[in-house]
Specification:
With 160 residues, the chain is mainly alpha-helical. The chain is 59% helix and 6% strand.
Length: 160
């Protein structure tokens, strides 16, 4: 029996940090479409594109990673970020910001539900990485990603 199995006390993953961005997303609904589709800076994405990017990554976690998360499992590799992000932005074609925000909110809530059922100390590998990960580390990684984009959005909107 592994140390993991001996020490297991049915810990679940704390997903509260992933909820923070939902407060921002709810607030975004009060902005007009034009504001949400202006690039936040020259050569940068718009708020709509940032939300779409977050939505696309949440979907990846739910569809490609979480179903395989188990102790000592080998998960699929993360996709090439540049390629994946281009695909995320292309997928937004014709979608209104307000609809996308709703889709993101619903997806994030589902992601949080799925992650909350997993043991936070469960370890697994991601193909292509030398490092072992825990569920908590994945949540922390995506929380840091959220915080980066939330700061960008808040800075942009504070100038409007």
């Amino acid at each position: 029996m592994s140390t993991y199995e001996n020490d297991r006390t049915n810990r679940t993953t704390d997903v509260n940090e992933l909820q923070k961005i939902l407060f921002l997303a709810e607030n975004l609904k009060s902005y007009d479409e034009k504001t949400l589709t202006i690039p936040i800076a020259p050569g940068k994405w718009s708020v709509r594109e940032i939300v779409g990017h977050l939505y696309y990554w949440d979907s990846y976690l739910m569809e490609s990673m979480i179903p395989h998360m188990a102790q000592d499992a080998v998960l699929p590799p993360f996709p090439n970020p540049a390629v994946y992000n281009r695909a995320a932005i292309a997928s937004l074609e014709g979608r209104r910001a307000t609809r996308l925000i709703e889709e993101f909110i619903n997806a994030r809530k589902l992601l949080m539900e799925q992650l909350a059922t997993l043991d936070d100390q469960m370890t697994f590998n991601i193909r292509g990485s030398e490092k072992s990960f825990t569920t908590k580390e994945i949540v922390d990684m995506f929380t840091k990603h959220d915080n980066h984009h939330q700061e960008q959005i808040e800075t942009f909107l504070s100038s409007k």
